[in-house]
Write a structure and sequence with these properties.
The structure is a single chain. The protein has 14 helices and 12 strands. By secondary structure, it is of the alpha/beta class. It has 2 domains: about 140 residues, Aspartate Aminotransferase, domain 1; about 240 residues, Type I PLP-dependent aspartate aminotransferase-like (Major domain) (Aspartate Aminotransferase, domain 2), CATH 3.40.640.10. The strands form 3 sheets. It has a 7-stranded mixed beta sheet with strand order 2-8-7-6-5-3-4, sandwiched between helices. A 3-stranded antiparallel beta sheet has the order 9-12-11. A two-stranded parallel sheet has the order 1-10. Helix 5 packs across helix 11. It binds pyridoxal-5'-phosphate. The site of pyridoxal-5'-phosphate (PLP) has 13 residues, from helix 6. The site of pyridoxal-5'-phosphate has 13 residues, from helix 6.
């Protein structure tokens, strides 16, 4: 006998992975330069030199330290560097003790969902468009994930729908800004309204409703877009961060959960995150990566390529008639299918070797996602295909 749920997740490949694997096979037949593959959110710019230098220094240090376990909460150097950097950048006094270091955002989110699940009645809420893996992370320990439909005009929050979805069993709302797949950044006004609603609903429920702020794209913004530091707006916020996208190192697996001291009973919440992490077999994040990132927490790769790709697409697609969400961050552009569902249009595009992810699993069945973390040549090659698809009746 096997776990039905585990078997299901193991046999089910995500729409993104399926399309990506298709692209690899197709490229072997027609040549890589004939495919416009916008399927995967894998950074296409190298990490900054500061990270390479940091790895070099760590590799020269005491090997018993570099390759040994760190403490489960993470190594002292990284927690201290984070506390210093974030206190300086976001104006909230944070201490090393507020950070639990994880192997990426996936582990951080799973630990938070698990920590906030007291029983099988527990519900979390995600707002479409949402990262599909939230369902896997939250259901792992028996909680339910309820979905609020998207505000398809501005891709901010449909507050009436959210209010209707909150129940006495709601323990947390997960948000992701800058957003995958829409690229939209929540405004401060949106977050303030959300905070007000959650305060009111927490008081009605008699327990805090936490905000789980999933922020792997926090530093990827364009045109000076402001990304509000969510704990400055809502006290019961747990931040889940990752260096996968902002430092171009998704394979190195590093992130954290931030539990600020303003969180109700923060020490217990922190302990529950640590315990949850233990429950999912997360011993500690990779030691060598923790020590390297500790030396360059504020470093950033050169984002010129993403900005150029975004601008090219944003100039061209709306002029052709595509209805796009305004992407102030991340490296995704989201648009409404000009005809039929997102799945239908993705198939039409695929027949022309243009790979676009249909957004049904993100909770927006009529939209598609373009992951523009690719070489600019791919974007340039894709534009005539987008035009031809729009003009085809
Ligand atoms: N959350 C969002 C919105 C993502 O897009 C991703 C990865 O694509 C993750 C979480 C998981 O990131 P990580 O690689 O840090 O586990």
């Amino acid at each position: 006998m096997l776990s039905e749920q585990a078997l299901l997740y193991g046999n089910q490949s995500s729409a993104i992975r399926t399309l990506f694997e298709y692209g690899r096979k197709r490229a072997a037949v027609v040549g890589k330069d004939k495919i416009c593959d916008f399927s995967l959110g894998n950074p296409s710019v190298p990490p900054p030199q500061a990270l390479f230098d940091a790895f070099e220094a760590v590799l020269k240090a005491d090997p018993m330290d570099t390759h040994g376990y760190t403490s489960a909460v993470g190594c002292d150097e990284l927690r201290a560097a984070l506390a210093e950097s974030m206190t300086r950048r976001f104006g909230m006094a944070l201490k090393p003790e507020n950070f639990f270091i994880t192997a990426g955002a996936a582990a951080a989110l799973t630990a938070c969902f698990c920590a906030l699940t007291p029983d099988r009645e527990t519900e979390f809420i995600a707002l479409a468009p949402y990262f599909p893996e939230y369902k896997v992370y939250s259901e792992t320990l028996g909680a339910k994930l309820r979905i609020v439909p998207a505000d398809e005009v501005n891709f901010q929050i449909d507050f009436d729908a959210l209010e209707r979805t909150i129940s006495k069993n709601t323990r947390g709302v997960v948000i992701n800004s800058p957003n995958n797949p829409s690229g939209v950044v929540y405004t401060r006004a949106t977050l303030e309204k959300l905070a007000e609603l959650l305060r009111r609903k927490s008081a009605e429920a008699g327990h805090p409703i936490f905000l789980i702020s999933d922020e792997p794209y926090r530093e990827l913004t364009y045109g000076g877009a402001e990304v509000t530091f969510v704990p400055s707006v809502y006290e019961n916020t747990l931040v889940c961060y990752s260096w996968s996208k902002c430092l171009s190192m998704p394979g190195d697996r590093l992130g954290y959960v931030l539990v600020p001291e303003q969180v109700t009973e923060w020490k217990s919440v922190f302990a529950a995150v640590a315990g949850a992490s233990r429950m999912i077999g997360h011993v500690c994040a990779p030691s060598i990566v923790q020590k390297a990132v500790a030396k360059c927490v504020d470093a950033m790769p050169d984002l010129t390529v993403y900005a150029r790709n975004r601008n090219l697409l944003l100039e061209a697609l709306p002029a052709m008639g595509y209805e796009c969400a305004k992407p102030d961050g991340a490296f995704y552009l989201f648009f409404r299918s000009p005809r039929g569902s997102g799945n239908d249009f993705s198939e039409e595009a695929k027949a022309r070797d243009l790979l676009l992810v249909p957004a049904v699993t993100f909770g927006c069945p009529n939209h598609l996602r373009i992951a523009y973390c690719v070489d600019t040549a791919v974007v340039e090659r894709s534009l005539p295909i987008f035009k031809e698809l729009m003009e085809k009746k």
